[in-house]
């Protein structure tokens, strides 16, 4: 019976993993003016706490050292459906997108070393935009509809290892291969059939490299401290093997604090700084913070808040972001399977644009 | 929550997530001043004055369709243009027949009781009033070399006609069913026996005109094997013009001659109806003669008329536009050098085809069911500039660089539509510096996608 439950859980996880193939959706309109929308290296559980628990969550790929307490083979995947309201001063609309930003595998390999890997979205570059305008051609005003479609993302393929250095210190390192492609298409439809609709398509490929290191210290039984650094080299964009651009990628510095005053009560907070400001035009350095709590056992209540800035946006000012999140999780099959649920609301404000995003996340974790 | 309910709830959530994974709906509002990709679609519009080069007209004196091969016989009496149909029927199928069913002895066929001459009018000028068709007997010597001024023909047309039929008058007659010749409902002239049927089944209204003659008008001359040559002239208050179906018209109906002979069958005079004869093949012939003679080629471009002329235009498309842009509209601009003469029904369609092979006058037209030819309607009396959209052709050239960049201008899409009217249009060629053909292009340069 136990095996049957495991199979059911594993099939559900594989189903989610297979469906994850078509990466799509632009998480934010602000990202169009830059390299894209950076992904979050957070599991569904960590998202439910506003990201505060990501620095101490082995299922998240933010801090390699947390792999140190993943003492079993663990497979995790997550999916998210977003409903995003986009509000310009004179009009608004909403879009829906579904994506699967995280897939991870980790487990011990002996000698106290835990190895983990997987992929996550590093930069989401999917969007679909239609604009209507009237242009004067041959002296006659002609209504036109322009369409811009970009479908793809830069993924972060991660391989990391962690070990317990001392009884109170875990350390981890990781390497990151940034790779991906984006199919882009731009076209113009003319309302006047005398003109032939036009479109042009291409495929851009991206590559880059990164490395990360982190430590997690346990100065007291109820206290955990994390510090992490990640350096990504550059993102190279090519079209038909011809290099189009190189953009510097950020150095990420971060720290986190987790306090567990009682067995069923945990609080955490973290802060992350990223030097996106060198990544091109309309790019800014960012500092993001988060704080959250997990209360209860079995089906715990998770709450969190987050704030900070987005790295890309027009107008000479980084868009700000504030969000609240909540969620819970269910264990079954004697703890071999975990379903995490999270609901997140984000509010982003930039020059001439405001976004409100509701995101429902579902995560599946299997420990066979 | 019981374990079973919890399990069901979990599986429900997973299933819902899997279903949601298959949907996506992304359309953001347009604010491309700030929140759109940096790629901008820019439309350029330019007039290429010297893009049309080495243009020539072909088709005179030998046309792509010449008069003897024309699918119609044009009959017109217009100011400055006169045209008459002439045709010679084949010999009669039978000159003698057996005197009885039990005897192989044959006797000669006698002069007919009546002779019916049928001809299909495929086009008539709707504005013509009192349009009258005159039928003449012509000498058997007519053939494809006969001209309007040939004395044998001109003398015949100068004499009295065998019969004259006013179409409007005949159409005003009561209708009845004709089971002898037309096998259709006819308007019958009860005095002469002439009849007319109106046929609109093929879309355009056509008429079948049948003359009833006798042996005095059309004698059964056995020395000429029963051959007969006839001619047709039209008159009207104005716009005297019609077109008769010729034997070259596919699925057409050439003139037909029906002999209703008599025969002495062992002392009893009986009637004998011969199979109809036509001018097609053998010793037959049909065509028309007209004056003045077709104008020869000059430095201008010529399309249409008879003999049917075509023009060939070479297009020198700048490489930067051909290779690195998307053409969204291309317009060929032709300036008429002379007005189109004729009657309103002479209006025709001017087609532009890409050439499959550029061999000058013998260039073949690219036949591609996925590439519809571009066209413009040329009306009689037209003196304005002609603009023809050739966007599809230029985009095809961009896709297939092996094609010659040559355009063929001709009348009608294909046979039998080419060579059905004497109307022709002339355009200034590239030799006319100020009124030469030009090409107006609207295009979008290639985008460079921002990484």
Protein architecture, described:
- The complex is a heterodimer of chains A (368) and B (451).
- Chain A is mostly beta strands.
- Chain A has one domain (4-366): Porin.
- Helix content of chain A is 6%, strand content 64%.
- Chain A contains two helices and 18 strands.
- Chain A has helices spanning 2-19, 44-47, and strands spanning 37-38, 74-87, 92-110, 113-124, 127-137, 140-166, 169-190, 198-220, 223-232, 234-239, 242-248, 251-262, 265-274, 286-295, 301-309, 320-332, 337-350, 353-366.
- Chain A starts with a helix and ends with a strand.
- With 451 residues, chain B is mostly beta strands.
- Helix content of chain B is 10%, strand content 41%.
- Chain B has helices at 3-20, 151-158, 167-171, 319-324, 391-399, and strands spanning 44-48, 52-58, 72-78, 81-88, 96-100, 103-124, 132-138, 163-166, 175-178, 184-188, 195-199, 206-213, 229-235, 240-245, 256-265, 268-273, 285-291, 301-304, 310-315, 325-335, 348-357, 364-365, 374-378, 385-389, 406-411, 424-427, 438-445.
- In chain B, the strands form four sheets. Chain B has a 15-stranded antiparallel sheet that branches. In chain B, strands 2, 19, 21, 22, 23 and 25 form a six-stranded antiparallel sheet that branches. In chain B, strands 1-27-20-24 form a four-stranded antiparallel sheet.
- In chain B, a hairpin with a 6-residue loop joins strand 21 (348-357) and strand 22 (364-365).
- Chain B starts with a helix and ends in a 6-residue tail after the last strand.
- Mean pLDDT of chain B is 87; it is low at 7-31.
- The chains are: A mainly beta (368), B mainly beta (451).
């Amino acid at each position: 019976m136990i095996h049957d439950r495991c199979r059911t859980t594993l099939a559900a996880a594989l189903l989610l993993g297979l469906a994850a193939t078509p990466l799509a959706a632009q998480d934010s309109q602000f990202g169009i003016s830059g390299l894209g929308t950076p992904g979050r290296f957070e599991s569904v559980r960590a998202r439910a706490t506003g990201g505060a628990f990501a620095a101490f969550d082995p299922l998240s790929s933010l801090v390699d050292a947390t792999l140190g307490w993943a003492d079993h083979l663990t497979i995790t995947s997550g999916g998210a459906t977003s409903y995003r309201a986009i509000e310009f001063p004179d009009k608004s609309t909403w879009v829906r997108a579904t994506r699967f930003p995280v897939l991870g595998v980790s487990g011990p390999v002996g000698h106290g070393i835990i190895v983990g890997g997987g992929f996550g979205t590093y930069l989401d570059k999917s969007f679909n935009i239609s604009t209507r305008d009237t242009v004067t051609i041959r002296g006659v005003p002609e209504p036109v509809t322009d369409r811009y479609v970009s479908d793809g993302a830069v993924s972060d393929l991660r391989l990391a290892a962690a070990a317990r250095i001392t009884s109170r210190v875990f350390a981890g390192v990781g390497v990151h291969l940034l790779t991906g492609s984006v199919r882009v298409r731009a076209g113009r439809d003319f309302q006047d059939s005398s003109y032939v609709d036009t479109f042009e398509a291409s495929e851009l490929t991206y590559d880059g490299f990164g490395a990360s290191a982190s430590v997690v210290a346990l100065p007291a039984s109820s206290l955990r401290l994390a510090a992490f650094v990640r350096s990504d080299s550059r993102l190279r964009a090519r079209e038909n093997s011809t290099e189009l651009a190189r953009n510097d990628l950020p150095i990420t510095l971060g720290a986190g604090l987790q306090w567990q005053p009682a067995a069923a009560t945990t609080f955490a907070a973290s802060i992350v700084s990223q030097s996106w400001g060198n990544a091109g035009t309309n790019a800014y350095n960012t500092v993001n913070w988060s704080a959250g709590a997990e209360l209860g056992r079995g089906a715990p209540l998770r709450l969190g808040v987050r704030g900070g800035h987005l790295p890309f946006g027009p107008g000479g000012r980084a868009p700000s972001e504030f969000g609240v999140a909540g969620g819970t999780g269910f264990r079954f099959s004697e703890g071999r399977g975990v379903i995490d649920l999270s609901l997140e609301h984000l509010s982003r404000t930039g020059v001439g644009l405001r976004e409100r995003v509701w995101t429902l996340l579902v995560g599946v974790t299997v420990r066979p | 929550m019981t374990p079973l309910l919890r399990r069901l709830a979990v599986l429900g959530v997973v299933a819902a997530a899997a279903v949601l994974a298959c949907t996506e709906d992304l359309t953001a509002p347009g604010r491309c001043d700030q929140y759109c990709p940096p790629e901008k679609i820019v439309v350029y519009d330019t007039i290429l004055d010297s893009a049309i080069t080495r243009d020539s007209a072909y088709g005179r004196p030998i046309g792509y369709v010449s008069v003897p091969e024309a699918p119609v016989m044009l009959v017109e009496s217009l100011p400055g243009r006169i045209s008459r149909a002439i045709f010679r029927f084949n010999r009669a199928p039978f000159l003698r027949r057996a005197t009885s069913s039990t005897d192989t002895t044959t006797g000669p066929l006698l002069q007919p009781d009546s002779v019916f001459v049928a001809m299909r009018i495929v086009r008539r000028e709707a504005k013509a009033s009192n349009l009258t068709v005159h039928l003449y007997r012509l000498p058997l010597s007519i053939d494809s070399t006969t001209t309007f001024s040939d004395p044998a023909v001109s003398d015949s047309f100068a004499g009295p006609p065998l019969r004259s039929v006013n179409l409007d008058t005949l159409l005003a007659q009561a209708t009845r069913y004709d089971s002898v010749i037309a096998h259709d409902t006819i308007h019958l002239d009860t005095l002469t026996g002439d009849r007319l049927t109106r046929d609109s089944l093929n879309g355009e209204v056509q008429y079948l005109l049948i003359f009833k003659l006798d042996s005095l008008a059309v004698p059964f001359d056995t020395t000429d094997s029963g051959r007969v040559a006839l001619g047709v002239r039209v008159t009207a208050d104005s716009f005297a013009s019609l077109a008769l179906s010729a034997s070259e018209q596919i699925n057409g109906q050439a003139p037909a001659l029906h002999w209703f002979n008599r025969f002495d069958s062992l002392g009893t005079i009986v009637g004998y109806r011969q199979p109809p004869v036509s001018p097609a093949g053998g010793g037959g012939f049909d065509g028309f003669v007209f004056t003045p003679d077709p104008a020869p080629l000059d430095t201008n471009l010529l399309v249409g008329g008879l003999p049917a002329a075509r023009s060939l235009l070479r297009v020198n498309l700048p490489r930067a536009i051909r290779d690195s842009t998307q053409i969204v509209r291309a317009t060929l601009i032709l300036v008429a050098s002379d007005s189109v003469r004729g009657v309103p029904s002479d209006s025709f369609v001017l087609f532009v085809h890409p050439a499959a092979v550029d061999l000058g006058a013998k260039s073949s037209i690219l036949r591609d069911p996925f590439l519809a030819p571009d066209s413009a309607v040329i009306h009689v009396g037209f003196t304005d500039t002609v603009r023809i959209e050739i966007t599809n052709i230029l985009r095809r050239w961009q896709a297939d660089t092996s094609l010659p960049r040559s355009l063929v201008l001709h009348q009608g899409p294909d046979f039998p539509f080419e060579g059905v009217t004497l109307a022709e249009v002339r355009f200034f060629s590239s030799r006319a510096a100020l009124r030469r053909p030009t090409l107006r292009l609207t295009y979008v340069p290639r985008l460079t996608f921002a990484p």
